[in-house]
Amino acid sequence: MFEPLGLSATTLAAVDEMGYTQPTPVQEQAIPAILDGRDVMAAAQTGTGKTAAFLLPVLDRLGHARRGRGPLMLVVTPTRELAQQIAQVAQAVCAHTHHRATTVVGGLGYEPQKQALKRGCDLLVATPGRLLDLLDQGACSLDGVEVLVLDEADRMLDMGFLPDMRKIVGKTPASRQTLLFSATLSNDVLAHTQSLVRDPVRVEIAPKGTAAKTVTQYVLGVSPEAKKRTLVEVLRREGSSRVIVFVRGKHRADHLCRILRKKGFSCAPIHGDRSQNQRMHALEQFDRGEVGVLLATDVLSRGIDIPEVTYVLNLDVPHDAEDYIHRIGRTGRAGERGWALTLCTEEEYWDLREIERLMGRVIDEYPRAEGMDLGERPLTLDPARSPRDRIPSKKARKREVAGRQQRAQTPRKAEKTTDERSRRRRNGRGTRRRG
Ligand code: AMP
After folding, report:
1. 107 or 210: which carries more pLDDT confidence?
2. Any residues with Cβ below 6 Å from ligand 1, and which?
3. Residue 165 CA from chain centroid, whole number
4. CA-based nearest residue to 179, from 36, 41, 61
5. What is the mean pLDDT of the chain?
6. 148 and 179 Cβ atoms separated by less than 8 Å
7. Residue of the nearest CA to atom 19 in ligand 1?
8. pLDDT tens digits for range 224-272
9. Cβ pair 326, 302 in contact under 8 A
10. Which of 23-27, 116-120, 294-298 has the highest mean pLDDT?
């Protein structure tokens, strides 16, 4: 029930229209604190309902800027997609609260954005670079900002936006209310952002490594040369509608897209080299069902809200374990069921183990691989592995890879056995399997 949270009837009507019946945990905790005028630092990954958690209470109380003035509320977010997505939710709320919202993001023309700012707005959603450009050009002022939202703060730090973020914050009044949302509130994030908030209420929903509980996760060991055909086979068996395939590298995404098209799948690539319009077009086509498979790099792994993704296929294991959590979070959102499959080669084995360590659990083997051609040397996974096993250093892993390449000359069966044995030895569990 949203009623006890303290929102006005107008905002509750917006909630009703958006079809939300129960507040999510982050909404339950953040909305009353924000309505109280408190600063908030929230650790909430995407998919937790954090966008509505800040838009609903702020717009509930926000006044209206005079013509040619504003913004009164500023949301800074790292990527164009996130900005568009926040703007969409804002539109739904503003239709009821009668606030004017404007979005300024890179990759689009300056003039329409300048014109919109000139007309004035109550809420401005912006990416840091473009906002600073426009501020430098005198196209807008942040003097009137009463509420500042820093969305995906950890991502902004990762992307090197810290100086931009500080500059922007410096241009807002010190009396503002500040709401900071981050997938994690790591020591690094806290060290860089604590000075931006005043006596904040801490909201922690998704501790580091918490994967969406509604996502069933599988891993399948494959040989590197078999990845493409395994992808095709999985799409054939599991369906190719509303599927996101994550890959490492923009060229790889483009290349695979061409291959899949030749095989008759409707797909589109989405990555940092695509223009804003191309990305938006691909997302719209996906949303309308004209494109069944999106081939994405990690540009899409955080924050993008695509409802009803059937499953996520990680063609490559991400190097950054937290990216995995974000990737699989694209399915099973806000209570829907979803599943994710990760293809893993020998080379990627330790990246997989890092993910399992972060999550504190091992990923089950994909149960429907019977009859699939997994290649010459598919990775074999030890079902007795534990997320608490020690992970060798990067240097030790490099040595292991070099050793493996050397051994690549030796007969196939012997090599696999040696690899698995040495791995078990390192994990301190001999060759015995846990019961
Ligand atoms: P977010 O974490 O803001 O990216 O939201 C993730 C998804 O959850 C979006 O599709 C929202 O529409 C949806 N959502 C947000 N709040 C609720 C709610 N209270 N009930 C159901 N769905 C929600």
Report:
1. 107
2. 20, 22-24, 27, 46-52, 305, 307, 333-334
3. 20
4. 41
5. 87
6. yes
7. 23
8. 999 999 999 999 999 999 999 999 988 999 999 999 999 999 999 988 7
9. yes
10. 116-120
Q: How far apart (Å, rounded) are the C-alpha atoms in residues 286 and 296?
A: 12
Which atom of ligand 1 lies closest to the CA of 18? 12
**What is the length of the chain?**
435
Instruction: Say if residues 359 and 208 touch (Cβ distance below 8 Å).
Output: no
Ligand 1 atom with least separation from CA of 2: 19
Task: Indicate the pLDDT class of residue 431, thresholds 50, 70 and 90.
Answer: very low
What pLDDT does residue 411 have?
Answer: 56
Residue type at 306?
I
For residue 303, which atom of ligand 1 is closest to its CA? 4
Backbone torsions φ then ψ of 86, nearest 5 degrees: -65, -40
Q: Whole-angstrom Cα distance, residue 58 to residue 74?
A: 11
Residue 219 tokens read as 């891993």
Ligand 1 atom index nearest CA of 15? 19
Residue 93 and residue 53 in contact, taking contact as beta carbons nearer than 8 Å: no
3-state secondary structure 303-367: CCCCCCCCEEEECCCCCCHHHHHHHHCCCCHHHCCEEEEEEECHHHHHHHHHHHHHHCCCCEECC
- The C-alpha angle with vertex 415 and arms to 410 and 419, in degrees rounded to 5, equals 145
User: How far, in Å, is the centroid of ligand 1 from the Cα of 26?
Assistant: 10
Residue owning the nearest CA to atom 14 of ligand 1: 49
Instruction: Fill in the DSSP letter of residue 152.
Output: S
| Strands 123-126 vs 293-296: parallel, antiparallel or unpaired | unpaired
The three-state secondary structure class of 23 is: coil
Name the DSSP letter for residue 39. -
**What is the per-residue pLDDT across 123-181, written as a single tens digit (0 to 9) for each?**
999 999 999 999 999 999 999 999 999 999 988 988 889 999 999 999 999 999 999 99
Question: Which of 1, 2, 16, 24 for mutating ligand 1's site (highest number of atoms within 8 Å of CB)?
Answer: 24
E-assigned strand segments in 118-197 = 123-126, 147-150, 177-182
Separation of alpha carbons 106 and 114, rounded Å: 13
C-alpha span between 226 and 413 (Å, rounded): 18
Query: Which of 17, 21, 51, 152 has most ligand 1 atoms within 8 Å of CB, for mutation?
Result: 51
Indicate the top mutation candidate among 26, 305, 325 to test ligand 1's pocket, ranked by most ligand atoms within 8 A of CB.
Answer: 305
Ligand 1 centre distance from Cα of residue 47 (Å): 6
pTM (global) more than 0.85:
no
CB atoms within 10 A of CB 61: 18
